[in-house]
Amino acid sequence: MQDLLLPGTERVLVTGGAGFIGGALVRRLLRDTCATVFNLDKLGYASDLISIELTLAELGSAAQGRHQLLRVDLANAEATGAAVRQADPDLVFHLAAESHVDRSIDEPGAFIESNVTGTFHLLQAVRAHWEQLPQERREQFRFHHISTDEVFGSLGPMGRFSETTPYDPRSPYSASKAGSDHLVQAWHHTYGLPVVLTNCSNNYGPWQFPEKLIPVVIHKAVAGEPIPLYGDGQNVRDWLYVEDHVEALLLAASRGQLGRSYCVGGHGERTNKEVVAAICSALDSLLPTGAPHRRLITQVTDRPGHDRRYAIDPTLISMEVGWQPRYSFEEGLAATVHWYLEQQDWCRQVREQAGYSGGRLGVLAPS
Ligand code: NAD
Ligand code: TDX
Fold first, then answer.
1. Fewer CB within a 10 Å sphere, N or C end of the chain?
2. pLDDT band at 367 (very low <50, low <70, confident <90, very high)
3. Cα–ligand 2 centroid distance for 196 (angstroms)
4. Looking at ligand 2, which residue's alpha carbon is closest to its atom 32?
5. 18 lines ligand 1 (CB under 6 A)
6. DSSP letters of 99-165?
7. Quick one: which ligand is closest to 209's CA?
8. Is the bond into 215 cis (omega within 30 degrees of 0)?
9. pTM, to two decimals
């Protein structure tokens, strides 16, 4: 069971563990390892701990005391230092970030604060921790930074991103993530901090805050409201089921080469129009009274600076660490649509808590 982690990895710090991908990672660590998980999160609008609480209840006494929440904002250097000292980690997965491109258009400052300054504070705290570890723990220690394919910019109709693609971020979100990637690499080169990075494509699956494409489309279709398709709907994203991303993170953290960055993607390229159509036809079978749901698809003003196409070449991570995605897009999407239909109360609750009514984000005022 402990094989998922390097031997001696008993204390794992996950930042952003109350979010969508961090939550999936925390649940996996609780289920399939014996490690104690320290979950550092500011508990922002996209956070929710219900999925972790359900997992803890399911595991019963086996998980007693193995999940410890550290409610900290990485923008606060002092609190970040104290949290890292309390966690005393053997391994860090850094996922905490503001993550929604549309919100980064409306409020870029929050992205610089969490993603750039927050990563800087975390790196300083982790470096101080790592430098004072006894030799054996110091040699095993890893800092795994979780990033996105959006740092590479936008592709034309051909080609895929790989580890050698130059950085070319184009939204406030992707620029802030690129900044954090550069900080992590700099801490490796300058201070010797043992880091691994991964740059993953679009994730989807259960427990994603309902502001991103797939949960938004499911929600709008079920409610019988217009389904917003930005621009011509021909933008391409490379979709990966969240459990496959978690598997890649665990493998890269234990088998990845230090200082390396790995591109993660599951050959899931689809246009937005194709994704929306697939959700509508899944819903036609599950909710025939609303069929055909595609009548709700509505083209709306495009996202400013909308990247045209993302696609990942995952050769390096499959060759070097042995990662392969398990879910096809069709399997993952069917599971996701089914899950959101069952969890409409959860969606309503988290939207209400966040003060988000489901309206359009990230449009510039007319000049
Ligand atoms: P999310 O928005 O669901 O969760 C992010 C979590 O980080 C939230 O719980 C939030 O409270 C926390 N957080 C944000 N700023 C913080 C701060 N200053 N201090 C402490 N906690 C803070 O995001 P997600 O989709 O789970 O993404 C997780 C990570 O994976 C991010 O770094 C993101 O850039 C990266 N990523 C996401 C995707 C995707 O498709 N969702 C793809 C590739 C990479
Ligand atoms: O209502 C919508 N209609 C629509 O057409 C929304 C919310 C999105 N879109 C389009 C914009 C994108 O082309 O769908 C595509 C996907 O949009 P998002 O779900 O907002 O994701 P994206 O902007 O591609 O970024 C995501 O993938 C990379 C995550 O939010 C990032 O955190 C991750 O790094």
1. C
2. confident
3. 25
4. 99
5. yes
6. --HHHHHH-HHHHIIIIIIHHHHHHHHHHHHHHTS-HHHHHH-EEEEEEEGGGG----SS--B-TTS
7. 1
8. no
9. 0.99
Could you tell which of 71, 99, 119 is best to mutate to test the pocket of ligand 1, judged by most ligand atoms within 8 Å of the CB?
99
Ligand 2 centre from 339 Cα, in Å? Answer: 20
Q: Choose which residue among 101, 155, 171, 216 to substitute to test ligand 2 binding: the one with the highest number of ligand atoms within 8 A of its C-beta.
A: 101
User: Which ligand 2 atom is the nearest neighbour of the CA of 99?
Assistant: 32
What is the residue extent of each domain of the chain?
2-201+242-265+311-326
pLDDT in tens, 218-241: 999 999 999 999 999 999 999 999
Integer angstrom CA distances of residue 14 from 30, 92, 97, 124, 264 = 12, 6, 12, 16, 19
Query: Quick one: which ligand is closest to 74's CA?
Result: 1
pLDDT tens string 241-280: 999 999 999 999 999 999 999 999 999 999 999 999 999 9
Please say if 41 is a catalytic residue. no
Is 11 exposed, middle or buried (CB count within 10 Å of its CB: 0-12, 13-18, 19+)? middle
Q: Is 173 a catalytic residue?
A: yes
The four Cα atoms 109, 113, 117, 119 give a dihedral, to 10 degrees, of -120
Ligand nearest, relative to CA of residue 236: 2
Q: Which residues have any ligand 2 atom within 6 Å of their CB?
A: 99-101, 148, 150, 202, 212-213, 216, 228-230, 235, 237, 272, 303
Asked if pLDDT for residue 1 goes beyond 90, the answer is no
- Is the pLDDT confidence value at 94 over 80? yes
Average pLDDT, whole number, for the chain? Answer: 97
Model pLDDT for residues 131-150, shown as the tens digit of each residue: 999 999 999 999 999 999 99
Minimum-distance ligand 2 atom for the alpha carbon of 202: 27
Please state which of the four CATH numbers 3.50.50.60, 3.40.1230.10, 3.40.830.10, 3.40.50.720 is assigned to the domain occupying 2-201+242-265+311-326. Answer: 3.40.50.720
Q: What are 252's two structure tokens?
A: 């890269």
